[in-house]
Each structure stands twice: as C-alpha cells, then as structure tokens.
Design a protein that fits this description.
- It is a single chain.
- This protein has 213 residues and is an alpha+beta fold.
- The protein contains five helices and eleven strands.
- It has helices spanning 3-9, 11-21, 25-29, 116-133, 206-212, and strands at residues 36-40, 49-53, 59-62, 76-79, 85-93, 96-104, 109-111, 142-156, 159-171, 177-190, 196-203.
- Strands 4, 5, 6, 7, 8, 9, 10 and 11 form an eight-stranded mixed β-sheet that branches.
- The two termini are 35 Å apart.
C-alpha cells in the first residue's frame, strides 16, 4: 500500500474529520512533523480508524472498538506539537463523550492513564452547587442526560485544555423536571511523576463550550 495514494484517496474523509472538529484538515489528521496520518484505512469509512506511518504506509495504531462505534462522525484527532502524542475525542455511548491521550513508544501509540475520574470529581462538586442553588435536595434522583470530556487543544507537549460537563434531570416538588449541571474548562498537565494534575479550572457554560466547537 502506498500511503501518498491513500492520503489522496481519503481527502474527503480527512475533510469530514476536520469539519467535525473545527480545525483545518492538516492539523487534524496529519502530525506536525508529517510522519503520521490519522484516518480510515484505505479511505473507507467502514474500516477502523488508525494512525499510519507515511514512510512505510503501515498502520501503527488501530483505534479502540469504542471509537469505532456507530458514532464515527464524532471522532476527532488532535496532534501534540511534538507529533509523539495525540488526543482522541469520540462519542462512546448514547449520552457520553470521552477523550483519550496516546503516546508513541517507538512502535505504536499507547493509551496514557485517563484524567476523567479526576475531572469528574470536580464536575460533581459543581453540580452539587447547582442543586443547592435551585433548592433541590442532594439525594434527589438524577437521570443522566449527558456527560462529556473533550480535549480542545495542546498548550504544550505535556499540557492540554479540556472542556467537561455533566447534566442531569431531577424531579422537582411540582412534579416537573429541572436540569442540574456542572461544567468546567480545565488545564491538565502531565507532571514529572507521570501523573495528571489539574493546573487550572474555569467555570464555562455548556452553551459557550458548544459555541467553541
């Protein structure tokens, strides 16, 4: 397989991926050093996503089954400036968006530990504030509406900006439903200990996050 031909044949697919993420085609699919390209194999949407070496034309990374679900239009790849890492945003369920970070080990891209649980704890605290502000009991039943974690950009090779929110529907005293939510924009850093740490968090409405997309 000749990858240059693959890139040309997949131009429509690459544009499709870029349009989903509001970034240009090259920044989304092609690594900054142009060594790797993220796309469908052979440009066919029914074949799994993967990262290919432009030199050899071989797939060096195959996306997980979750990312290759029926929500393929939501998949977005964001390369780090060093081309040795990328963030993969995708919809992993009917009410759930997630993001994974992958790092090059010399042969393939391996999944880094997730920061989702750490961010999720902060979102729960924000949602608890919303419950209190609306006068809703903390132990009220909450129906899941949406959970979302999305890497927006690489600030540097060890730091990413992530938008995250959680939304629940809660029955009110009037037998009606109210939405309660927590939404934050995080700056997350991979430190020298090999752990993610939250450097900064900023309250941002889900509407503003949607506009940024």
């Amino acid at each position: 397989m000749i990858l240059n031909k693959l890139i040309i044949s997949a131009a429509g697919v690459l544009f499709f991926l870029a349009s989903a993420g509001a970034q240009d085609e090259e920044a989304t699919a092609l690594s900054p050093d142009k060594r790797f390209v993220f796309q469908f194999e052979d440009g066919q949407p029914d074949v799994p996503f993967g990262v290919f070496s432009r030199k050899s034309g071989k797939m060096v990374f195959k996306a997980t089954d979750e990312a290759n679900s029926s929500f393929v239009s939501t998949v977005r790849c964001l390369w780090a400036p060093d081309s040795r890492q990328f963030a993969l945003n995708y919809r992993a369920g009917g009410r759930y968006n997630t993001t994974d970070i992958y790092r090059w080990d010399g042969k393939t891209f391996l999944k880094a530990p997730s920061f989702e649980e750490m961010l999720g704890a902060r979102l729960q605290a924000e949602k608890a504030k919303d419950l209190k502000a609306q006068g809703i009991k903390a132990d009220a039943y909450q129906r899941r509406i949406w959970d979302s974690y999305s890497t927006k950009r690489w600030i540097d090779v060890n730091t990413v900006e992530v938008d995250a929110y959680t939304i629940r529907a809660v029955a009110t005293k009037e037998d009606d439903f109210a939405d309660v939510a927590g939404s934050l924009r995080f700056v997350v850093h991979w430190d020298q200990r090999g752990k993610w740490v939250i450097v900064k968090q900023t309250p941002v409405s889900t509407e503003e996050m949607d506009k940024a997309n």
